[in-house]
Each structure stands twice: as structure tokens, then as C-alpha cells.
Amino acid sequence: MTTVTRAATDAATMRRALELAERGPARGVNPRVGCVIISPDGDVLAEGWHRGAGTAHAEVDALSKLAPGAAHGATAVVTLEPCNHVGRTGPCARALVEAGVARVVYAVDDPGPHSAGGARTLSDAGVEVVGGVLADEVEAFLEDWLFAAREGRPRVTVKWASSLDGRVAAADGTSRWITGREARADVHRRRAVADAIAVGTGTVLADDPALTARDDEGALLDDQPVPVVFGRRAIPADAAVLRHPIEPITLAGTELAHDLEELQRRGIRSLFVEGGPTLATAFLAAGLADDLLVYLAPAVIGGPRTAIGDIGVGTIAEAHRFHITELVRLGDDILVVARPDTAAHPETTTRERV
Predict the structure, then answer these.
(1) SS (H, E, C) 284-301
(2) Rounded to an integer, what is the distance from CA 205 to the centroid of its chain?
(3) What angle do CA 342, 344, 347 make, to 5 degrees?
(4) pTM beyond 0.90, yes or no
(5) Higher local confidence (pLDDT), 341 or 211
(6) Per-residue pLDDT reduced to its tens digit, 196-223
(7) SS3 9
(8) Sign of torsion over alpha carbons 325, 329, 330, 334
(9) 59 an active-site residue?
């Protein structure tokens, strides 16, 4: 097989491995990983994927479908660097070595402090290792998991809906509905893909939100975020959040960084912050907003009820700067998606769909 042909085979096989990875659970502490084992001629020998915590990793799943010795001299193509530690399962790097695999191709390095190093183990055992194949595609696929693994906390999206002048409610406190039906439907779709949704106890007491993801008719969507409530005040026994299909997680909210670490330990990789101005302000002031979703309605309200309070900016030079990654027209409303200028991918190009 020529170098060019091998590179093309690696890429095509990696795309298949990525398809397999998509079959795994989107939520939880473990990443979705796919693996394809091919012969020296490029024929598929076995496929596998990870089905969740405590089950066989993708490489071991694929190897289990082969007779003893059948993987000798083969290539294993896997979306994530084979792990190098003993957890609920053994190290995949060692399993590949023991199976006689001659070559391993992977897309993204494992960022885990305990699980990383599989590539070195393989190389030290004489296995040819090729990393970075379709890395951008796999990085995008594993974005939330990789972020949580690298940062030690979930990726945080802070959302609010406001008028053009940044008000979230009128002077009397009324706020339903600032935005239209299309914008509200978009919010529910985004809730459904988040691991968790968060509000403060003030919002629970004032608005009694259900924190569910619903369709246009109000029926629950199949995927529901874990409800999280920040604050020390008690949640009323008849609160709607207590009727959520998933039991709420309650956190004090006095040390957000610590609370986020706790959420990651519970398998939360993405957090959708949808509380009122107090909670949104706290996340922004702490520098813990990784994405902003701002729904702007073509209305001017005026008054004191602003979307964000004091975040410690005393002069314009201290302003928190973001770059817009997406603009979306939703009926009469506009969605602005933005990330901090210090985000990991400042080169993201703006996509306008207005």
C-alpha cells in the first residue's frame, strides 16, 4: 500500500470510526469513541464502540469480535488516543499490544491526566503510531467532553433574552414574552442537547420554571437536561422543578468554580445557564461563561431590569470582550452567539443566517 493510499484509507476508516462513536451515549463521564480494525490490505476485520461507563472501550469491543491472533499485524483506527490506565476496564493500549496490532491510527490525544500516554506505550512496544487523523472533525464531535476533561469543569453557556436596550423585564417585573415563538423553540432545542440546565433559587421562587425541554405543543422531548439549582434558599415542595423527569441537583452557588467541578464529577459536561440576571452576572463576573446566547427582541423597554448587573468593570478598558460566532434570524428576533476572545478557538468564522 502506497503512502498516499494508506493516508486515504486512514481518513476513510476514521470517518467510519466516527460514525461508530456516534452510537455511544452522548452524556456521562466517558467520551464517545469508535474503533475499526483493518487488515494490512485495508479490509475491515472488526468494529467497536464504547457503550458507556463500565462497558468495554471501543478498542476492546472491536478486538472481542476477532478470533485469537486475528489482529496480528492489523491496524486499529480509533477516534481517541487509546487509554493507558486501569479503571473499570483495563488499558486499551496494552490490549492492542497484546493482540499483536502493528499500527494504531487515532485522531485526538487523550487529555486525561491518568488515561493519557497510550500512544507512548504503543510506540515503546514497537507499534507504529499515527496521530491527528481527522483531528478537527473529532475535536468538534467531542467538544464538550474534551473541554470538560481539559478544564476540569463543564462548558458553560449563559443565555438570556432581552429587548434591544438590554432589558429582561418591564418595571413591574413582567417578562412573558419578550421574544417570539421561534426563539423560544430554539431555546428548547438547545436545552435538549445540554447535559444540564441551571437557574438560581430566586428564579425558582419568582417564576417556578419546569426546566424541561419541550416541543411546540408543550410535550417533553426525548432528551432532557439535568436540572441544577444554585442558591441556599429552600425550594418549595410544590415547585415545578421537583416534577422534572430527572432529580434536581442543588448547589450553594457561593463558589461557582467548586460547584462546576462537582458537576463534572457527576458526569455533566455542558451546562446551560438560564437563570435570571443574578446568576448570569455571577458567571460572567467569575469569567466562567464560555458561550453567550443572547436573544434580542425588536422592542425597547427601559427601566432598571437589565440582563446583566455589575461584573466588576470600572472602565471601558476592562470590558469583557467577545467575538460573535453566529447570527441567526428567528422570526422577528435575532440570536447572537458569542465566545470570549480568549476562547480556545478564536479563529472561528462568523456564520450569518439572517
Answers:
(1) HHCCCCCEEEEEEECCCC
(2) 29
(3) 85
(4) no
(5) 211
(6) 999 999 999 988 999 999 998 889 999 9
(7) helix
(8) positive
(9) yes
